[in-house]
Structure formats: C-alpha cells, structure tokens
Design brief:
single chain, 480 residues, mainly alpha, Serine Threonine Protein Phosphatase 5, Tetratricopeptide repeat, globular
Length: 480
C-alpha cells in the first residue's frame, strides 16, 4: 500500500513538474516574442462605430465563450464589436483581449473562415503581453485556437499551461481532451474526462463525454449523454449544436431517418447551424431525396464554405454522373484548403483524403505520412492506409487498416468507412474471407455511409460471392 501511495505521489509530482516546465516555456515565448499591445490595437478594425451601444446578445455570447460553448453568430458579432470598442479606450484590459481572441476563434469555427484565426492569435497574445502570469483565460483561448487549426500538439501545450495557471479551471479540460483525441491518445482523453467530471457536470460536459465514449466504442452511452445534453441546453445555439452531434451519431449508426430528424430540429432551433444543414443533405441523399439533398448542401456551403462540405457535395455529384459539377466542388475544396493554410490551419488530412480518391495517390501518401507524424489519430491512420492502397502499397496499407479497426492492435474505432477501407485493401491482397467480413461489417454499420463508396462495397461483395462451403470433419453428418 505504501509503495502504491509513493508511486501515485511520484506520478502526481511528475505531472506538476511537467506543467511547470510547459508554463515556463510558454510564458517565456510570450514575453520574448509576443506582439506589443499597441501593435495589436492598430490591427483592430477601424470601420466599426467608436462606441456601439451594448447589445443584449454580447453578454450571452461572452458567457458562452467563457465556458467554451457554442454562441450564435449575431451574438458573436455583437460581442466582438463591443470588445473592440472597449479595447480602444482600455488597451491594458487583459481579460477583454482574451474574450475578444476567443470570440474570434469561435467566429472562425462557425463561419469556416480561417481569416479570423490570425486576429485571434494577435488578441490572445496581446492579453498575455498585458498579464503574462496566471492568465488562464488567454491560455485557454490559445488552446482553442490551436485545436481549431488542427495543431493538436500546440493545443495540448497551451492547455497544460492553463491548468498550471489554474488547476481547477474546468473549461480547460474539454480543450485538452480534444487535443489528446487529435493526437490519437484515447487513454489520456479518458483520464482527462474523468478529471473534468469531478469538477463539473451539465450539458457541455455531457457532450464532451459523448464524443469520448463514441471513440471508445460505447455507442449507447454516447447517444444517452448527448440526449441529456440536448435536454439541459441553456441556449438555442447550444441546443442546436448538441442536436447536430446527435444527428451525426445517428448517421454513423446507419439510422438515416433519426439523423434527419435531429438535423432538422437543429436547424429549426438555430437556422445558422450549417453543420446540421450539411448533415441534412447527407441524410436526404441516403433517403433518395436527391434534389432536396443538393439544395441543403448548397445552402450550407453558401453560408459556411467548409472544404469538407465541398468534398461531400462533389462526391454526391460524382455518384450522379455529374462530373463537371463535381469538379467545381473539388476546385472549391482546393481554394478553401489554401485559405485555411493562409490562416494557419492544417487541412492536410482532408486534402490527403481527397487526393487519394480524386487526385494523386502518391501525393496523398506523402502528405498523410507527415500528418501521421504530427497527429497519429484514428482518422489519419485510416486515411494513410487508404492512400497507400490507392498507390498500390497494399501490405503497408493493411497494417494501418488493422491498427485503426482493432483495439488490440492499436486504436480500434467502429466506422463503416474504416471497415470498408480495410475490406477493399484485403480484397486487393487476395484475402477473400477477411475482405468479405469487413465489407459486410461496413454495410451493416451504415449501408449509406458514402454515395460513392457504399455502392462500390456492394459491388465488391457481389464479386467476392458466397464463402466456399467447408467440408464437414470426418465422421460428422450434416443435419437432415
């Protein structure tokens, strides 16, 4: 017992020392290279009114941003305008800079416009320039910004520094969990979820728990937690966000009708919930309501031109034989990926997936190998394995496919797309039994997982045919 206590004490001390080192490095970098507050002030927009009247929505958005919860775009705009005007008069207000920077991050997420991210970076570093020590609000904002840019190592660093500044700050833990998930460390994500649940309960925690549970394969628990989050949501934007996630989980289960209901309810609750609108397009396409699906996708892209929506719509067009329309969407995808890079965001995973199926598979392999070194998550492992297969490297491809689909061999995530990829790789290797099993699993998990690939899975199964009838052991008779 004493040995166990000493081990736990040593582990706890190691964590404290690690956080101290992280905080020292982070703060030294801020003090050495952060922008001067005056420089940040120059970069504030000058076309807003000098002193806009306080907006009721600004207070609601500030509360949501402080808790890391979704905020409606009009309220976010009101908050940003309010903080910008305040900072012109009070440039030494570290808290206001932190709020402004975090609001820019949320605005970038909601609009899929990475141009907001450099502004967020400047504001958050201005906050740290004013108050370097104990500024957990700005450190949280930088962790959120890094997650939004898919720089999960930086997100982990900033979140650890925030916990050093304030170990009881519950809003840091969801950011740390997201970072660990992006790094493929589900055990660390689960540990931090346990710590979060000791500090806080409520819809935001339930929604984060649902995401972790889903990755761990606890599908029913994930759905139950999201239902609780929807029921307890405190604002329309928050409720719509949890409804959209519930729709996504229903889609992953292959329940297209339930997915559509969740997405439609999310849109009724918050018409600016564009992720739900794209999800609506996905579900409508699976139900054969193609014209409505195209309309939903176009509306989502018009207001939130996210590259993943362009890929989905392009593949839907391609499945309908509309090659020119698909190419328009693929061109939009490339344009949005370039814009993301200009804003400091990493879209190499999406670009690698796109190139593997619609472009240069060898280029996809190069991109995804580099992404795997940075962020060894399940999504990257699957994409790299598929790119290797498309480039003709089937043996190495299978290693990644096994890693992503079997928990005993690595990560182990249940996904129709991942099972399909593994089945097709095994088919290319001549492993007919495993190929048949994994293609069947893909269609059992979600028969409509992709308008392009689900039909290909069915065609591959037909080509494989029925499994051969094995002869009975000697002395065993077939039942009559």
């Amino acid at each position: 017992m004493e040995t166990q206590e000493r081990t736990e004490e040593n582990a706890s001390g190691g964590r404290r020392r690690r956080r101290t080192r992280i905080a020292t490095v982070v703060l030294a970098g801020v003090l050495a290279g952060g922008l001067a507050v005056g420089g940040a002030l120059v970069l504030l927009p000058s076309d807003r009114p000098a002193a806009p009247p306080p907006a009721a929505g600004a207070a609601a958005a500030r509360d949501a941003v402080a808790k890391g919860m979704p905020a409606a775009p009009p309220e976010l705009s009101a908050l940003i305008g309010n903080r910008e005007a305040h900072l012109r008069k009070h440039p030494r207000d570290a808290a206001a800079w932190a709020v402004l920077g975090t609001a820019y991050v949320e605005q970038g997420r909601r609009s899929a416009d990475p141009a907001h991210y450099p502004k967020a970076d400047r504001a958050l570093h201005a906050s740290l320039r004013v108050r370097a020590r104990g500024n957990a609000e700005a450190l949280d904002g930088l962790a959120a910004l890094a997650n939004a840019r898919r720089d999960f190592r930086a997100a982990r660093k900033w979140a650890e520094a925030a916990l050093k500044a304030d170990g009881e700050r519950w809003t840091t833990y969801p950011l740390l969990i997201e970072a660990y998930t992006g790094l493929g460390d589900l055990k660390a994500a689960q540990r931090n979820l346990d710590r979060l649940k000791k500090l806080r309960s409520g819809p935001a925690v339930q929604a984060r728990a649902a995401a972790v549970y889903w990755d761990l394969g606890w599908r029913e628990d994930a759905a139950a937690k999201l239902a609780d989050a929807v029921a307890g949501a405190g604002s329309a934007a928050e409720r719509a966000a949890w409804l959209e996630r519930a729709g996504h989980l229903a889609w992953e289960r292959g329940d297209r009708e339930a997915a559509l209901r969740h997405f439609q309810e999310a849109l009724r609750t918050d018409p600016d919930q564009r992720a739900a609108q794209a999800g609506q397009g996905r579900a409508l396409a699976a139900l054969g309501r193609t014209s409505e699906a195209l309309t939903a996708y176009r509306a989502a892209l018009d207001k939130r031109p996210a590259p993943e929506y362009a890929l989905e719509l392009g593949e839907l067009y391609e499945s309908l034989g509309l090659g020119q329309a698909a190419r328009v969407q693929y061109d939009l995808l490339r344009e949005r990926v370039r814009a993301a890079a200009a804003g400091g965001a990493d879209e190499e995973l999406l670009l690698g997936r796109f190139e593997a199926d619609h472009g240069d598979a060898e280029s996809a392999v190069r991109r995804l190998r580099a992404e795997w070194r940075r962020h060894p998550s399940a999504a990257v492992a699957d994409a790299l394995g598929w790119a290797l297969h498309r480039a003709g490297e089937h043996e190495e491809a299978r290693k990644f496919a096994v890693r992503v689909t079997e928990r005993e061999k690595g990560i182990g995530v249940r996904s129709a797309l991942y099972s399909y990829h593994r089945g097709m790789i095994e088919r290319a290797l001549g492993h007919e039994g495993p190929a048949r099993r994994h293609l069947q699993e893909a269609l059992r998990l979600n028969p409509w997982f992709s308008p392009l690939h689900a039909p290909r899975a069915r065609a591959a199964l037909r080509a494989l045919g029925e499994p051969p009838v094995e002869p009975l052991p000697r002395g065993v008779r077939a039942p009559e």
